[in-house]
Write a structure and sequence with these properties.
heterodimer; A: about 250 residues; 6-stranded mixed beta sheet; 7 helices; about 35% helix; globular; B: about 475 residues; alpha/beta; Annexin V, domain 1; TIM Barrel; 4-stranded parallel beta sheet
Chain lengths: ~250, ~475
């Protein structure tokens, strides 16, 4: 009954107020998978990124974080490109485009491999229909959300959409967020950004997420501002579909 | 002014109160990240020694941060009363007073909590052992009222956190009903929205209101959107019991959260006015629900060189300005850059609860961890038992502890019921009555129906209609 409408683990019975042994061990096993997801990596030659590399010239750059340990302990290192990467971005990316799309591994590299290319294709198709100029896509490894400021300073697009792996949960180790920034610059914070999260096959599907991202970007352009003052407008009839629950 | 102290034969000099406070902290990765923490164990203890001799008036006179938060907090301290009741104590002496018999009644009778500033609360916490933090906080009871009463002796309340990846109302309702069968939800039913749209937030507020009204639940509903989104939903007719906001301990960090003290005041006034129109539901006018967490000021690069425990106490000081119904430290959510592991999360959870209580706040804790930190559900179990022993006002109830929207683990409905059973704790009095009337509570114990489907079907039919 619950399984069709929510991925939450409901109606778990067991001795007195505890879990059954099977439920307890399932929780442990899902936690183990989530821990593994954090330690996974995504390289530019991954087959999942090949279409973006071949058709759109996706290229890889890196931040100042040189190890996973550094990346976790020192977030500011993940918010700045290293010197070589700054040059590469300045050299390869056309400036002043309407929309710059960035992919970042974040805390779930496999989520970006799985959902990033599809969202990218959908966004680019819609943007082109509306006559927007779209920049050359960038893949940033050991990436934090604040990288949008750094790239904004270098490329000066009207809007940046960053597709980045969220920290893994138990229900899914592969979930992606889209962060949106209007003319991102040094000093911008989360209050200047908009977010669509939970993009995965049990949450917001790619076909739902892409139009929502596009509409929000359009609003940012219309109002000339991003962040908390811009709220997503959704029709009352909108009822997102929920996919299958996690396999038992 | 500077302080000096000797530990293990080594002499240490601390050049400012900021430095002394930071180095007296137990080890936290967030303080190290900002280069503030002690560089050795001996330096840490030396700082604690020096801090123990600092007089409390110094902590009022020498401000660590010069901003609107400091100004607003200090404006409410009655200085003559402070000088009379606390002005003669050092930080070390205050620790001993707190742990001595009879402190809790003095604290209540003389309203000492009004005189404890964030800096004082943080300073004394730095001198305390974990067990001190537990035993010092346990007798400090803070009663607050909205639609029910939280904080009574022997009460451990809980928030049902029925989050859903896309805010589906049926999914939220099912999670709520499961929690009710475990006796959870007496502090509040609070949804973190996946979508920050006014429309969605309004819908979810209405879903919660419908469940609460139809089941006649003595609790409060809340959707944890940004305060501006909630206010807009309120203007569009949504029912709001508690207005939520994350707060931090400096003006600059609050700006990064998109809020100001004036905005929080506006929210409080708007919701109190809204309650007057539906006054039969409310037994008190504490309408604010705040969340805080160590490290939030530093995430916004807005801590001004002040350690994260002190910034956290200041965030609680901000919360106190608005007479909150509940305050929640979401202790392990922030990640390893601020609290690296189980040891640091446990310490921070006990500190946050203690400083909040000492300042007179209805302090709860989201005992939690993310999947990129060195902790697991066992560490969560440990902190839950410690906090329940410390008299924590409320904890979270998340289905199986697995938040399917925010992707982190908290405490579960099962955990709340188990720890209540273990430590003979109860839900709020109003909620206990509600459970008893439905055969779910008897002789001070939860009745775990082994055919929950029966109860569930009844609740579901009442709350949202017959099951299909």
């Amino acid at each position: 009954m619950a399984r069709g409408v929510t991925p939450a683990r409901l109606f778990l019975d067991g001795p007195a107020t505890s879990y059954s042994t099977a439920d307890l061990l399932r929780l442990r096993s899902d936690h183990a998978a989530a821990r593994d997801a954090v330690h996974a990596s995504l390289e530019i030659d991954d087959p999942a990124l090949a279409p973006l590399v071949q058709e759109h010239g996706l290229f890889a750059v890196r931040t100042l974080a040189t190890s996973l340990r550094q990346y976790l302990a020192y977030p500011h290192l993940g918010r700045a490109l290293d010197e070589t990467s700054r040059d590469t971005v300045s050299h390869l990316c056309p400036s002043d485009v309407d929309l710059q799309i960035v992919l970042g591994d974040g805390l779930s590299p496999r989520a970006v491999a799985r959902y990033g290319p599809q969202i990218f294709d959908l966004l680019v198709a819609t943007a082109s229909r509306h006559g927007w100029s779209v920049g050359r896509p960038i893949y940033v490894s050991r990436c934090r959300v604040g990288i949008m400021n750094d790239i904004g300073d270098l490329v000066r697009p009207t809007a940046i959409v960053l597709l980045i792996g969220e920290r893994p949960g138990l229900a899914t180790a592969e979930s992606m967020s889209a962060y949106l920034g209007y003319k991102p610059r040094s000093g911008h914070t989360d209050a200047d950004r908009n977010l669509i999260c939970n993009i995965h096959n049990k949450g917001v599907s790619c076909t739902e997420a892409a139009p929502r991202i596009f509409d929000l970007v359009r609003q940012l352009r219309t109002y000339g501002v991003g962040g908390i003052s811009v709220k997503e407008a959704m029709p009352a009839s909108h009822r997102p579909n929920i996919g299958a629950p996690p396999p038992a | 002014m500077k302080w000096t102290s000797t530990c293990g034969g080594e002499h240490f000099v601390f050049h400012s109160l900021k430095e002394l406070m930071a180095k007296a902290n137990e080890e936290k990765s967030g303080d190290a990240l900002d280069g503030l923490g002690a560089r050795s164990d001996r330096e840490r203890v030396a700082a604690k020694l020096a801090l123990s001799e600092v007089g409390l008036p110094t902590l009022l006179d020498e401000q660590l941060i010069d901003d609107g938060v400091t100004e607003a907090i200090l404006a409410r301290v009655d200085r003559p009363r402070f000088d009379q009741l606390l002005g003669f104590l050092t930080v070390g002496e205050l620790r001993e007073q707190i742990l001595d018999e009879g402190f809790a009644s003095r604290w209540e009778e003389d309203a000492l909590h009004q005189l404890i500033t964030p800096e004082i609360a943080a300073a004394v916490a730095k001198l305390m052992s974990d067990l001190d933090l537990v035993s010092g906080a346990a007798p400090l009871r803070v009663l607050t009222r909205c639609r029910s009463t939280v904080g009574g002796t022997g009460v451990l309340a809980s928030r049902i956190q029925p989050n859903h990846p896309v805010d589906d109302p049926s999914g939220i309702a099912l999670s709520v009903l499961d929690g009710l069968l475990f006796g959870c939800g007496d502090a509040l039913i609070g949804v973190n929205p996946a979508v920050e749209s006014v429309q969605k937030v309004r819908d979810t507020l209405q879903t919660l209101d419908q469940i609460i009204e139809r089941l006649d639940l003595p609790t409060q509903g809340c959707v944890l959107a940004h305060v501006t989104t909630q206010l807009e939903a309120l203007r569009q007719g949504a029912p709001i019991d508690l207005v939520f906001q994350s707060v931090a301990g400096t003006d600059a960090a609050n700006t990064a959260f998109g809020i100001s003290l004036a905005l929080l005041e506006e929210a409080q006034e708007a919701v109190i006015a809204h309650h007057r129109d539906r006054h039969d539901r409310y037994i008190g006018d504490q309408v604010m629900y705040f969340e805080t967490g160590q490290g939030s000021a530093l995430t916004a690069s807005a801590n001004w060189g002040v350690d994260q425990l002190t910034c956290e106490a200041r965030a609680q000081g901000v919360a106190r300005l608005y007479d909150p119904f509940l305050v929640n430290s979401v202790v392990g959510f922030i990640g390893p850059e601020y609290l690296a592991n189980q040891r640091q999360i446990t310490r921070a959870g006990l500190e946050d609860h203690f400083t909040g209580k000492l300042m007179g706040l209805p302090m709860g804790c989201d005992v939690c961890y993310t999947n990129h930190v060195d902790a697991d559900q066992n560490s969560n179990d440990d902190l839950l038992v410690l906090l329940a022993s410390a008299g924590c006002t409320f904890v979270m109830g998340v289905p199986a502890g697995d938040d399917v929207m925010l992707n982190y683990q908290s405490t579960s409905y099962h955990d709340v019921a188990t720890v209540r059973r273990l430590l003979q704790l109860r839900p709020t009095p109003e909620f206990e009555q509600w459970l008893a009337a439905r055969g779910l509570w008897r002789h001070g114990q939860l009745v775990r129906a082994h055919s929950p489907a029966l109860h569930f079907g009844e609740l579901h039919a009442l709350a949202v209609g017959p099951l299909t």
